[in-house]
Amino acid sequence: xxxxxxxxxxxxxxxxxxxxxxxxxxxxxxxxxxxxxxxxxxxxxxxxxxxxxxxxxxxxxxxxxxxxxxxxxxxxxxxxxxxxxxxxxxxxxxxxxxxxxxxxxxxxxxxxxxxxxxxxxxxxxxxxxxxxxxxxxxxxxxxxxxxxxxxxxxxxxxxxxxxxxxxxxxxxxxxxxxxxxxxxxxxxxxxxxxxxxxxxxxxxxxxxxxxxxxxxxxxxxxxxxxxxxxxxxxxxxxxxxxxxxxxxxxxxxxxx
Amino acid sequence: xxxxxxxxxxxxxxxxxxxxxxxxxxxxxxxxxxxxxxxxxxxxxxxxxxxxxxxxxxxxxxxxxxxxxxxxxxxxxxxxxxxxxxxxxxxxxxxxxxxxxxxxxxxxxxxxxxxxxxxxxxxxxxxxxxxxxxxxxxxxxxxxxxxxxxxxxxxxxxxxxxxxxxxxxxxxxxxxxxxxxxxxxxxxxxxxxxxxxxxxxxxxxxxxxxxxxxxxxxxxxxxxxxxxxxxxxxxxxxxxxxxxxxxxxxxxxx
Lengths: 256, 254
Prior knowledge:
The complex is a heterodimer. Chain A has helices at 52-59, 83-91, 108-118, 124-137, 153-165, 183-198, 210-216, 234-239, 244-255; strands at 12-23, 26-37, 41-45, 67-72, 75-76, 93-96, 171-175, 202-206, 219-224, 227-232. In chain A, a hairpin with a 2-residue loop joins strand 4 (67-72) and strand 5 (75-76). Chain A starts with 11 loop residues before the first strand and ends with a helix. The longest helix of chain A is centred in the last third of the chain and has 16 residues, at 183-198. Helix content of chain A is 38%, strand content 25%. Helix content of chain B is 78%, strand content 0%. Chain B is mostly helical. Chain A binds chain B through residues 60, 62, 83-84, 87-88, 90-93, 95, 97, 99, 101-107, 110, 114-115, 118-120, 147-153, 156, 160, 163-164, 167, and chain B through 128, 130-131, 133-142, 144, 148-149, 152-153, 156, 234-236, 238-242, 244-245, 247-249, 251-252.
């Protein structure tokens, strides 16, 4: 493991306490209790439809929950708060989508600059400087004036990461960041994510990339049918999974 | 053949009346009035339609209900009736007589505003949901996301539909005839009253003029539509689409 693992006493960054969510009568999340500590990298895995994406989208309230308490950096995300407080809270949670969701009408540079300028009120010149640094960090400073449509999927996802980092979030959430990519582009995105982990960023990643989980994660969470069934360091999870459902999941992966 | 000669004769004898009506000795009329009425109608209806579309998509019922009601009423009533309402009600409301041109303009703004708002609403909801999600995740408010992310894309995609609506508006101005708005149809009516014996030639000529104007604009709309579709296809392939760069960039610099 290349980055400093957080100690057991580190303060929690994201806390899930008794989270329940339903789509109509269909349970999507069932009594989820867990926490991501500051500086920790958590990888969430499980079969499709197990609630991984739903869980990560509750953290910045793109999905509502029916009961439970969810705290981000000590703040109750699903409490009754005003919309400007909610917007401020969201601006502090970096979020990377499976489908990138870059803004196609803006250049790469403007994609990264838009929110620092319009949400945080940073001067354009300053925002431009920060954006160029971040594009350099994801290896795309030469594409600053291009439009998203002119970039490959891997490049678009790296811009999306830079765009999220531009808000200087204390934690980054990744919702299947490589699932929409051609196989040869997965590596470039994962290597940016490895770099972030190395720099001590708190990260929660929903992903099917088990090598990434093995190398980078401090903990692996395994979900099935809306329940968090297992939470263990990668060596323990991959070496001797406890839950029968997790054992089956891992043996299915190996069989492929 | 005689028909054609007669029509050319009518146009060459009355071209000024057809072009500008009685102007400068009377109010501006003819095709100039038709076009000015249509352009002003669409131009004033546009901000109204964006406001109404945002209200209809708003999370607050207080905004959603009145806008929805207005759209349903306007869509469910013939344009002629709205013209009559405005014709009889507007002078009562403001306490003085209103020129026919203004009556027709007010009607068009209400009518086109309702129809355009449905176009705007469709353009907004047609965008992938991820665009709004991404904007909200970055901390933009609902209106901020609309302004900087959703509307610049949606309005650009809507340009062909807006031109189509403009063509409809040109045709709708003919109804101004019944409240004596001196537009193109009214001018043709004057010519017909003067000639008395050539109604077929006069109204055939009138149809050709409308057809030329509307067909040209429809052609323009479909050309633009093809270009936008091609651009969109390219952007989905992830291949270069440099022309897209120029179009909506203004919105990002605000």
